[in-house]
Amino acid sequence: MKVPTPVQLSPEEVAFVRGLVLYEDAEILALNKPAGLSSQGGRGQVHTLDELLWAFAKPGKARPRLIHRLDRDTSGVILTAKTKPAAGLLGKALMARRFSKIYLAIVTPGAPEPKGGVIDLPLRRDEQGREAYMRVCAPDHPDAEPSRSRYRTLAAVPGAALLELDPETGRMHQLRVHLAAIDRPIAGDARYGGALVVNGHTAPRLMLHARALAFPHPAGGTKRLEAPPPADMADLIAKLGLG
């Protein structure tokens, strides 16, 4: 197979992406993706994470392969495979739902009722010009995709809550749309009705963070990786008294 043409990166870009490394061994590379960085397919002039992975390529070899994606404005753990066999094994494990993903989100206007449970609402893709949205739909809609999200409340104050989320399926924007559907949109999520100011404090972006990822390691056993919330989210959690 022909190796794709490498992307030329600046020294600053190389240093930036190398600074995101959470874990690395012979077969996998995990990064702590910041908010604002597209995983793949960005339309701007800035390189995507997929392109920045050329910083880790050996001469004449392909870059590590992304196993899954995170929304551009979502931060947290993202996994890549350094070898073709590892990519194949991890891709199959992802499809078989053998990955466990844990997210943190700040929502308004307070804790959901009940404070923990499962959101089981089918979703469909809705294209509007160059933008794509996900919408809750009837189970018998021709484009319906079964979608399930588990949630539990970690902390709550009047007007806001910190939730732990576990998506059982992996639809685009799933957690964002599911939480909006139960009237607890994620703070900073302008696309799906999230508050931009929470109890007098600005939500600078989508307050959604991929905190932990557990998966079958290609060498055997289960690997669990964690990433602490970035400074902007940790600051809002502290200001709201949710820490």
From TrEMBL:
InterPro entries: PsdUridine_synth_cat_dom_sf, PsdUridine_synth_RsuA/RluA, RluA_PseudoU_synthase. One of its GO terms (biological process) is enzyme-directed rRNA pseudouridine synthesis. GO terms for molecular function: catalytic activity, acting on RNA; pseudouridine synthase activity; RNA binding. PANTHER family: MITOCHONDRIAL RNA PSEUDOURIDINE SYNTHASE, RNA PSEUDOURIDYLATE SYNTHASE DOMAIN-CONTAINING PROTEIN 1. This is RluA family pseudouridine synthase. It comes from Phenylobacterium kunshanense. Residues 28-181 form the Pseudouridine synthase RsuA/RluA-like domain. Coiled coil: none annotated. It comes from the Bacteria. Belongs to the pseudouridine synthase RluA family. It holds the Pfam family PseudoU_synth_2.
